[in-house]
Design brief:
The chain is of the alpha/beta class. The chain has 4 helices and 4 strands, in the order E-H-E-H-E-H-E-H.
Length: 119
Amino acid sequence: MKAILLVSHGSRSSTTKEEVAALVETLRKRVKADIFEFAFLELESPSIPEGIDMCAAKGADQIIVLLNFLNSGRHVDTDIPAIVHEAKNKYPRVRFFITTPVGQHAQIADLFADLIHHV
């Protein structure tokens, strides 16, 4: 079973978790996957390890860690891969994939242009 785990940084803002949950619901309608969960690197729960545990408990044999981060940096390049590496040891039968950050997507300039045009 394929799981999508949307991973965001986390925030002290009360609306962040609501926004991430809403994004997951939108993705659920557009992407074929058996399991959809979200998790946060810090400041909010569930944590990334907890999100991975939830996916595994639901029977995931493939987990796509969908990075809700704009650019590369310590979290994207080091912290999250280290967490996923630990999860691979915990769940050796689960295949893990980590997406690139959103800012590396070919259509990011189109998205920003659209935002500019709607100001």
